[in-house]
Amino acid sequence: MHDGDILLSDLDENGVLRLTLNDPRRRNLLSEEMLTRLGAAFADAGTNAAVRVVVLTAHGPAFCAGHDLKELTADRVAPDKGRAYYAHIMALCSGVMQAIITCSKPIIAEVTGVATAAGCQLVASCEIAIAASTAQFSTPGVRIGLFCSTPMVALSRNVAPKHAMEMLLTGDMTPAAWAAEIGLVNRVVAPEELRIATTELARKIASKSSLTLATGKRAFYEQREMTLAAAYDHASAVMVENMLARDAEEGIGAFIAKRARRWQDC
């Protein structure tokens, strides 16, 4: 069990929303309850005008240890040996990871400790990840006969195929420094500097126009799945619409006039 709320939420005056996984005794597992709460939190953040950036972090030595295997195993007694429940959980988890992508606000993972299996997937799904030097990452499913197929989706979209396959095929722990080398995280800082570094970055991003950030985030993921020519056509159309937005007019005008920008997020 856990003490109190398993997902904490705190919004500061700069529009930075901190979502904190708060089930440290169970290593912040992605139980059905945690997945449901996370999905709702990301959806709410996307529609809340007061939220400009989301930071996802955790309490305890583990950032997130992935799925709750005891919860999953308990359903093996069902007539279908758990098939329906497993399908439900995998769909729920995949929905949460996609909710990070479809959320209109940038999401930063602040990785405090070990992130394994679906926990590693959670980190890989965020736009940016800052890790403490003591953090470690792995996709260890292969060690228990369960290949990390869904974590593979996010992992393979962040790191080179050979690095992704090494993690997936061995299940070995990847130290934070190497995770930064292969592109799983953006940077590594001392544990005592982690919150400071993440907050500084989050506030820098939060100072930008929310409309511009939402436009750019959506276009980034859309064009990534296209051919080169189609991506340029799409990005060009996005630029045209962006140029017609009030904040682009304001930002360009302020740059030319050498004055402070006044965003209206429209």
TrEMBL record:
Pfam families: ECH_1 (PF00378). One of its GO terms (biological process) is fatty acid metabolic process. InterPro entries: ClpP/crotonase-like_dom_sf (IPR029045), Enoyl-CoA_hydra/iso (IPR001753), Enoyl-CoA_hydra_C (IPR014748), Mitochondrial_ECH-domain (IPR052377). It comes from the Bacteria. Belongs to the enoyl-CoA hydratase/isomerase family. Keywords: Fatty acid metabolism, Lipid metabolism, Transit peptide. Coiled coil: none annotated. This is Enoyl-CoA hydratase domain-containing protein 3, mitochondrial. It comes from Pararhizobium antarcticum.
